[in-house]
């Protein structure tokens, strides 16, 4: 009997197993079909949007066209529309749902404010910030246009008055601003909206910063998702969604959430041709950073208005305070200031009594100051969308303005510990890191790529730090597989001894510093400079060869580095852009030089000669707003000599030709295979070659070279900002006196990447 039961039990178990396999197979098939269905729906929606976009929305023969022109001139005091404004207004007036993507300062607000003055009834504007709404109301009042707002601080009298107007046959207000929280949490307000709709007085729903609907966006707000019911509740009311930053996938998500599939999508180009984009290496010393800001504000931007964005309230207060001590009219702005102080700071800046606002991201939305000449990001923004939107507050008057980003490796982890809980927080942040680490591509092309656009080089017109030097340098790839395996071994060893490594501890272990227990047996310390180590680790993070893991403490969140999801096989190469190589000879002919300009961490600074810069010569000084001076300097340097650049590959025979230098190296102190520095020599100096501006590199050379015969020899280091060679007597890093060796054929040490 028991045998029969056992057999039946085994049979049932097998059947269950077969059913589980069938369920798994069907589940996978279902997921595949769901994905296919979503893709088809997207295609249908995209096609419908394309068909609408192909219509002529710029026509001026609509029944409302004359009225629109009249209101533009009489009410808004404008003579003509900006790109896409008339198309959007015509779409709204015809009852068409529409999503408008327009750069910051492009004139999005007019696209719903003007129709509100022409249409019967009330236009409801949903906006994320009370301060933004207050700015809009002030602008409307200055034009004598009827607008009001409702928020949590509105008095009972104001609320009752607005509710009465909403259900009036002839309302005295045309624009009503509310936050999404008001819609989501006030049943009384929603009931008034329904009555307004039934009376035919709900003319338009405008949703500002509509990207906040999407959880894939950089600024997702849960209450915005409530707006998904608006089309169902008020199907005949056209919806206008406005944003300055949204990718194609985010637009599709917005259409789905708001039930606007297949709506008209109008995109203005993201290119702001008057803005110059630059990335500057940021010092680890706060005092040096403030000195550089002071130099910018007192010289390049002297008397000009701007914004400095900081990571934290503490940073804002400290930097603003230090700048004031140095005679700069600077004030801090952040969310911890009360409303009166924020308003006072804002007014002081808009009236130009204050030169620069030092702010967190709390300062921004709705800022409408046309003459902002610079926006400086003192810390890494959390996403390309944030960077584009914040930097876009410069140059709204269409005159040239600068957008400068100070990049430092440590700032990556300050941000990552804040954003890793967001849906796409780390992906968005790493996109910003990739932008900073890029060595040669046009900054504009990187922004365009993120927003699914394609711009030509001509679209930049040398208005970014890379295009200023176009034609002189190109990226040089380096196989860093050996470096990856060294880091991998350190992290694997740390896991075995139950230790976790921050980025700083990882670099120290890699360089042979810090506690010996963190280094695996047989570890060979790298000779890379810290800046190069940081670059390699950042690139490995971006490509998922490394990953961040986060640990909560009662006071903070800590980022640790661990082995990533991607692995490297034993014989596999790992090519990363580690340097840029000069590709033009000094006589203007194309050619290749073996000397590298390590842009990522070693950039010349001809503009600054302060003592703080002597202590950190790897900092890159931002070029002038006008590219002519730097271009002229480059041209002058290029034409000073007709000597040929070094050829790309130095063979062993060429290196041995000057064995007199090599003989000065002991066997222990010759550069090993793991070093990123090689020693070469030449009897002719290639003019204007950049060898090294990094103290660490020079010290590395000192360690490798023990003795050099001094009979007629000199060790020279060239710098892009110098016309003369510098003789380093006894290998002084910063000689007090430069000694000219012009006209002499002397050996020269060339510091470059090893291939």
Automatic annotation (TrEMBL):
Domain of life (superkingdom): Eukaryota
UniProt cross-references to InterPro entries, sorted A to Z: DEAD/DEAH_box_helicase_dom, DNA_helicase_ATP-dep_RecQ, Helicase_ATP-bd, Helicase_C-like, P-loop_NTPase, RecQ_Zn-bd, WH-like_DNA-bd_sf
Keywords tagged on the record: ATP-binding, Coiled coil, DNA-binding, Helicase, Hydrolase, Isomerase, Metal-binding, Nucleotide-binding, Nucleus, Zinc
Biological process (GO), any one: double-strand break repair via homologous recombination
Leading EC class: isomerase
Compositional bias annotation for Polar residues: 649-668
GO cellular component terms, A-Z: chromosome; cytoplasm; nucleus
Feature: compositional bias, Low complexity: 601-640
Coarse class of the protein's main subcellular location: nucleus
Ranges where the record places region Disordered: 585-685
Necessary cofactors: Mn(2+); Zn(2+); Mg(2+)
Gene3D superfamilies registered for this protein in UniProt: P-loop containing nucleotide triphosphate hydrolases (3.40.50.300), Winged helix-like DNA-binding domain superfamily/Winged helix DNA-binding domain (1.10.10.10)
Places the protein is found: Nucleus
Domain Helicase ATP-binding: 89-264
SUPFAM superfamilies assigned to the protein according to its UniProt record, in alphabetical order: P-loop containing nucleoside triphosphate hydrolases
GO molecular function: 3'-5' DNA helicase activity; ATP binding; DNA binding; four-way junction helicase activity; hydrolase activity; metal ion binding
Family to which this protein belongs: Belongs to the helicase family. RecQ subfamily.
Alphabetical list of NCBIfam families matching this protein: recQ_fam
Stored PANTHER family: ATP-DEPENDENT DNA HELICASE Q1 (PTHR13710:SF105), DNA HELICASE RECQ FAMILY MEMBER (PTHR13710)
Protein name as catalogued: ATP-dependent DNA helicase
Species of origin: Argiope bruennichi
């Amino acid at each position: 009997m028991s045998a029969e039961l056992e057999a039946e039990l085994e049979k049932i178990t097998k059947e269950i197993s077969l059913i589980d396999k069938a369920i798994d197979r069907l589940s996978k098939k279902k997921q595949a079909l769901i994905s296919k269905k979503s893709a088809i729906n997207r295609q249908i929606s995209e096609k419908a949007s394309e068909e609408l976009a192909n219509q002529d929305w710029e026509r001026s023969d609509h029944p409302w066209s004359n009225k629109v022109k009249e209101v533009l001139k009489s009410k808004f005091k404008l003579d003509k529309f900006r790109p896409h404004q008339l198309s959007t207004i015509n779409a709204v007036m015809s009852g068409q749902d529409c999503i408008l993507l327009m750069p910051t300062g492009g004139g999005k607000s007019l696209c719903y404010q003007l129709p509100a003055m022409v249409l019967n009834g009330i236009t409801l504007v949903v906006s994320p910030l009370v301060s933004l709404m207050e700015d809009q109301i002030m602008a409307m009042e200055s034009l004598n246009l009827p607008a009001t707002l409702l928020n949590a601080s509105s008095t009972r009298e104001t609320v009752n008055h607005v509710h009465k107007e909403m259900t009036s046959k002839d309302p005295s207000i045309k624009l009503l601003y509310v936050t999404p929280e008001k819609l989501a949490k006030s049943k009384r307000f929603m009931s008034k909206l329904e009555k307004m709709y039934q009376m035919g007085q709900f003319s338009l729903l405008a949703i500002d910063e509509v990207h906040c609907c999407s959880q894939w966006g950089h600024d997702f707000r849960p209450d915005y998702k409530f707006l998904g019911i608006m089309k169902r509740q008020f199907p005949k009311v056209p919806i206008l969604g406005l944003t300055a930053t949204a990718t194609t996938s985010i637009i599709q998500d917005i259409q789905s959430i708001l039930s606007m599939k297949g709506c008209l999508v109008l995109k203005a180009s993201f290119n702001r041709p008057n803005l110059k984009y630059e990335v500057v290496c940021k010092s680890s010393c706060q005092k040096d950073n403030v000195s550089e800001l002071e130099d910018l504000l007192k010289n390049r931007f002297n008397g000009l208005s701007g914004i400095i964005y900081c990571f934290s309230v503490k940073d804002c207060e400290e930097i603003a305070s230090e700048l004031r001590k140095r005679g700069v009219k600077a004030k801090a702005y952040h969310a911890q200031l009360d409303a009166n102080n924020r308003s006072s700071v804002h007014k002081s800046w808009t009236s130009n009594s204050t030169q620069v606002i030092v702010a967190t991201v709390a300062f921004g939305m709705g800022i409408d100051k046309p003459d902002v000449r610079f926006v400086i990001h003192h810390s890494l923004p959390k996403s390309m969308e944030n960077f584009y939107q914040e930097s876009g507050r410069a140059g709204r008057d269409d005159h040239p303005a600068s957008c400068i980003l100070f990049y430092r490796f440590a700032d990556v982890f300050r941000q990552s510990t804040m954003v890793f809980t967001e849906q796409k927080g780390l992906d968005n942040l790493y996109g910003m890191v990739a932008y900073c680490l890029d060595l040669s591509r046009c900054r504009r092309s990187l922004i365009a790529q993120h927003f699914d656009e394609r711009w030509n080089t001509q679209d930049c017109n040398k208005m970014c730090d890379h295009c200023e030097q176009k034609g002189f340098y190109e990226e040089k790839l380096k196989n860093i597989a050996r470096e990856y395996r060294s880091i991998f071994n350190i992290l694997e060893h740390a896991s075995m001894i139950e230790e976790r490594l921050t980025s700083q501890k990882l670099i120290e272990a890699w360089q042979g510093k810090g506690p010996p227990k963190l280094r695996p047996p047989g570890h060979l310390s790298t000779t890379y400079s810290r800046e190069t180590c940081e670059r390699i680790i950042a690139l490995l993070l971006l490509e998922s060869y490394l990953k961040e893991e986060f640990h909560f403490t009662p006071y903070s969140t800590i980022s640790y580095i661990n082995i990533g999801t991607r692995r490297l096989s034993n014989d596999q190469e790992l090519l990363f852009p580690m340097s840029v190589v000069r590709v033009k000879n000094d006589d203007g002919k194309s050619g290749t030089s073996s000397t590298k300009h390590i842009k990522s961490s070693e950039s010349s600074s001809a503009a600054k000669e302060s003592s703080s810069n002597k202590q950190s010569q790897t900092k890159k000084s931002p070029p002038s707003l006008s590219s002519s001076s730097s271009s002229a300097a480059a041209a002058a340097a290029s034409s000073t000599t007709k000597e040929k650049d070094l050829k790309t590959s130095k063979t062993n025979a060429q290196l041995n030709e000057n064995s007199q230098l090599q003989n000065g190296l002991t066997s222990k102190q010759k550069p090993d295979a793991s070093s990123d520095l090689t020693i070469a020599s030449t009897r002719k100096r290639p003019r204007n070659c950049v060898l090294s501006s990094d103290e660490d590199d020079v010290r590395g050379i000192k360690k490798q070279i023990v003795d050099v015969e001094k009979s007629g020899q000199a060790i020279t280091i060239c710098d892009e900002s110098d016309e003369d060679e510098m003789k380093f007597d006894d290998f002084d890093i910063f000689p007090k006196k430069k000694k000219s060796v012009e006209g002499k054929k002397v050996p020269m040490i060339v510091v470059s990447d090893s291939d």
